Amino acid sequence: MMVIDADQQLAFAARLAAQGKHHQAAAEYDRFLHFFPNDPRQREVHLEAGRGMLHAGDGPGAERYFSTVTQGAVRDDLWQSAHFLLTESYLLQGNPHAAVKPLYALLATTAEAKVKDKVYQRLAWIHIDQLDWDGARRILERISPEGRRRFDTQALADRLAQADRLPHKRPALAGALSVLPGAGQMYCGRYEDALAAFMVNGALAWAAYEAFDHDLNALGGILAITGLGFYLGNIYSAVSSAHKFNRAQQEGFSKNVQRQWVIGRRSDPNTTRRLSAAAITIAVRFQF
Known about the structure:
Number of helices: 14
Radius of gyration: 27 Å
Number of domains: 3
Oligomer: single chain
Strand order of the largest sheet: 1-2
Low-confidence stretches: 265-288
Shape: elongated
Helix content: over 70%
CATH topology of the largest domain: Serine Threonine Protein Phosphatase 5, Tetratricopeptide repeat
Largest sheet: 2 strands, antiparallel
Mean pLDDT: 89
Structural class: mainly alpha
CATH class of the largest domain: Mainly Alpha
Order of helices and strands: HHHHHHHHHHHHHHEE
């Protein structure tokens, strides 16, 4: 009967990870945790299993492994790394509010400037991903002078300041312009929607007028009520279009900044890029 020892089990899991079979690798790391509970590498393997879950897109599974380490009594480099990785597991679940908690917990328990700088930088990128430019700049200001040089935070802060000059559409103005159906959509650059709004509202208004003019009051009333609904919908659509325009500008700016810093010449060795399966999004990810 073949007996696999701890080293062989870890080597097998590592091979699977190297082959990109991350979910299987995580399962093999978990097998190690089960069969070798007294091995001194238990904490390291928890992190490796969690990384496998992250790569496999399983945020809750990754959270479980990383939390085991963060809740442990030993506070060392592995413990610090687990906090950063736990943040990534929450982000993978689309929960930025929970993602910042491990980082702030780490800030409260460490006096190391380099660790704090990494925390502040990661927090800044979370703010950037949430389109909170002012929050990101405030966080960047907390980084130590040495960290600012290392991460080139002044250049990043200057780049974020450009967000104030992004093209912007005023929702209130879009709604006001929609007194003339389609004008608000045209203001937002949605020309096909503008034409459709003008044609539909105009047609309903004309039909209602003709109905009343021919003493078809019941039909005229129905058409008038229907037309009013479309008219109000036209105003709502214009306001919504302005919000969508502004959101698209901000999201595009965020992606461009992240591409520049993560993929471009300003990339830090502690960061890497992750492409979302749902859309082409770039996010900073620390490697530990």
